[in-house]
Design goal:
2 domains, ATP synthase epsilon chain, 2 helices, 29% helix, CF(1), alpha+beta, Single alpha-helices involved in coiled-coils or other helix-helix interfaces, hydrogen ion transport, ATP_F1_dsu/esu_C_sf, ATP Synthase, domain 1, ATP_synth_F1_dsu/esu_N
C-alpha cells in the first residue's frame, strides 16, 4: 500500500507526524477515508477522533475542531487542539464533562448553552479517546 505523509499541528505544537497508509476523519460533511493519491480537498473537522492507520496499527488522536487539507504531497491537520490517548488526563476530562452537563441542565441563555454543548462534546471525545487504547 502506498504511504502518505501526515502532520497534525495545533497552535502550541506538532502532535503527530508520520508516513501512513490511511486517515479517517470526521469532516464538516461527514466521515472521510483518505488514501495516498486522494483528490485534493480542504474541509473543516468536527470534534471527533481522527484515526491514522499504518501497517496494521491504528493511532487515535482526539481533535477539537480545525481543518484538514489533502494535497498530492501531504495531508495536514490544523487542529484547535489534538491529543494522543496517553496525553489525556481522564479525571480532568470527566470533571469537564460534569461541569458541562450541569451548565446544560440550567436554562440560561443560548450562548452559554452552545458553549456547554461544545465543552461536553470535547470532554466525551477526550474520554473515549483515552479509554479506547488502554
Amino acid at each position: 500500500m502506498n504511504k502518505m505523509p501526515i502532520e497534525i499541528v495545533t497552535p502550541e505544537r506538532k502532535v503527530y507526524s508520520n508516513e501512513v497508509d490511511m486517515i479517517i476523519a470526521r469532516g464538516g460533511d461527514g466521515d472521510l477515508g483518505i488514501l495516498a493519491g486522494h483528490t485534493p480537498v480542504v474541509t473543516t473537522l468536527k470534534v471527533s477522533q481522527l484515526r491514522v492507520r499504518n501497517e496494521g496499527q491504528e493511532t487515535i488522536i482526539a481533535v477539537s475542531g480545525g481543518f484538514l487539507e489533502v494535497k498530492p504531497e501531504k495531508v495536514t491537520v490544523l487542529a484547535e487542539s489534538a491529543e494522543l490517548p496517553e496525553e489525556i488526563d481522564v479525571d480532568r476530562a470527566a470533571r469537564s464533562k460534569e461541569r458541562a452537563e450541569r451548565r446544560l441542565s440550567d436554562k440560561g441563555d443560548s450562548t452559554d448553552h452552545r458553549r456547554a454543548e461544545l465543552a461536553l462534546a470535547r470532554a466525551i471525545n477526550r474520554i473515549n479517546t483515552a479509554t479506547s487504547k488502554r
